Amino acid sequence: MNKLGIIDYRNIIKTVRSTYSIDFNDFAMTSFKRKLEQIIIKNKLGDADGLINKIKIDENFKKIFLNEISIDDTEMFRDPSLWREMKFILNKEKNRQSFKIWFPEVSSGEELYSFLILLKEIDLLDKVKLMVTSFSDKKIKLIKKGVFDLKKMEVNNANYIRYSLSGNLMNFYDKRNNKAYMHLSLLKNTDFKNYVSFNENFTSNFHMIFFRNKMIYFNKTLQMKMLRIITNSLYLGGYFVIGIKEKFDNFSAISKFMVINRYENIYKKIV
């Protein structure tokens, strides 16, 4: 297929908004357009009109579309220095009676399971409550199953060794039928919600929000909206983990935070 033109792109966005009531207009166009092109090729839809017609007439296509358009997490314990810093921060919070964490727009689950393993290692899994949200119900169901390709686990294991020289990632999953099955007991304090976070106001208060390397896929308007939601959803003293690929300094919300770790882009709400 030919690459999507601007008019094709806008027509698809308009169709998704009118059919699914989800507005992707403020996603960064280049990366989102590439995702749309991949969906057209993967589902053998031919061109933009084929995708538009599929969205309009096939009710079952919604779950497929939202699953394939979402932003994938790539690896467990990616950027091991971040996870060592997370362990340090969370160890300091051990005396809290409760600790609530929000993972907005989780897609494939690698970072979530990394976080849960970290909590298990430092004996905080029973104290911490996690809220996981995604606009893809299909993604949520896959994350709950906790099944990963063994080939992918080779990379995850390598990352884990760099993060924890003394641990063993294989303590947290079983091998069956050429797949890795995560120990689902890790999810016992995790609540999942099918939730369009960039369209709705979130009212809960959290002690930490883990939203790493996601806003690079948003344009400035959506970035500002998400930062308002995130700022309003954090307790005073709460942590915001944004990731090394993001730039936070250019937003007005930065005045409400202090830097905890400049390299890893970890902030603490002070106002």
Description:
- This protein is of the alpha/beta class and 271 residues long.
- It has 9 helices and 10 strands.
- It folds into 2 domains: 6-69, no CATH class; 80-269, Rossmann fold, CATH 3.40.50.
- The chain has a 7-stranded mixed sheet. The protein has a 3-stranded antiparallel sheet with strand order 3-5-4.
- Helix 6 (110-121) links the parallel strand 1 (99-103) and strand 2.
- The chain starts with 5 loop residues before the first helix and ends with a strand.
- The mean pLDDT is 88.
Write the layout of secondary structure elements.
Layout: H1 6-20, H2 29-42, H3 48-57, H4 61-69, H5 80-92, E1 99-103, H6 110-121, E2 128-134, H7 137-145, E3 147-149, H8 150-163, E4 173-176, E5 179-182, E6 190-194, E7 206-210, H9 220-233, E8 234-241, E9 257-261, E10 266-269
Helix pairs in contact: 1-3, 5-6, 5-8
